[in-house]
Specification:
heterodimer; A: 7-stranded mixed β-sheet; 4-stranded antiparallel β-sheet; about 0% helix; globular; B: 6-stranded mixed β-sheet; 5-stranded antiparallel β-sheet
Chain lengths: ~110, ~110
């Protein structure tokens, strides 16, 4: 158990819909990262927040957005969903903001868009 | 574009033998490299890392080798154990920065 929790575990929704994925980092971790793992790709970095502020952005679509709240939990919002958005979405947390800080991953949320 | 490549999707090794997992990268700015291990239904777990100022880092049965001129790194597991069966991801970052670039993973099966 990494100490990072993600809800829900599974999500099935239709094209065009909007969903929210939630992540609670390990106690004491200030950084939260979101990754997407689709069938034909490795883990793709989406976005990072550090202590409530956006720190880095990767290949995140404009239809996707995220935020980190004062209690440090984070939410990833996916809208106008397409079939290609079906993937595993991982959240990770670390104490600090750089990659030399070990990132602890949650178990992921499996999103299926039908 | 995939800047970190793991060209072998799978590898099978006998228990007790050496497992060698390979990773190539294209971005010469990468200076920090990591290996993660992933079991089914779990998130990836950090295994070992190496900075570009080194060419080898060892942690118990796991050793990572970095060849900067070839833009290649490898993970050696000696001796391999059935519990090592998992998907292994190679990752890299620039200036030990914020974003990790992952490969697609290599599925290792260690048979008794």
């Amino acid at each position: 158990d990494s100490g990072v929790t993600q809800t829900p575990k599974h999500l099935i929704t239709a094209t065009g819909q909007r969903v929210t994925l939630r992540c609670s980092p390990r106690s004491g971790d200030l950084s939260v990262y979101w990754y997407q793992q689709s069938l034909d790709q490795g883990l793709q970095f989406l976005i990072q927040y550090y202590n409530g502020e956006e720190r880095a952005k990767g290949n995140i679509l404009e239809r996707f957005s995220a935020q980190q709240f004062p209690d440090l939990h984070s939410e990833l919002n996916l809208s106008s969903l397409e079939l290609g958005d079906s993937a595993l979405y991982f959240c990770a947390s670390s104490v600090g903001g750089g990659t030399t800080y070990e990132q602890y991953f949650g178990p992921g949320t499996r999103l299926t868009v039908t | 574009d995939q800047q970190v490549k793991q060209n072998s999707p799978s590898l099978s090794v006998q228990e007790g033998r050496i497992s060698i997992l390979n990773c190539d990268y294209t971005n010469s700015m990468f200076d920090y490299f990591l290996w993660y291990k992933k079991y089914p239904a779990e998130g990836p777990t950090f295994l070992i890392s190496i900075s570009s100022i080194k060419d080898k880092n060892e942690d118990g049965r796991f050793t990572v080798f970095l060849n900067k001129s070839a833009k290649h790194l490898s993970l050696h597991i000696v001796p391999s154990q059935p519990g090592d069966s998992a998907v292994y991801f190679c990752a890299a970052s620039v200036n030990s920065g914020y974003a990790l670039n992952f490969g697609k993973g290599t599925s290792l099966l260690v048979t008794p």
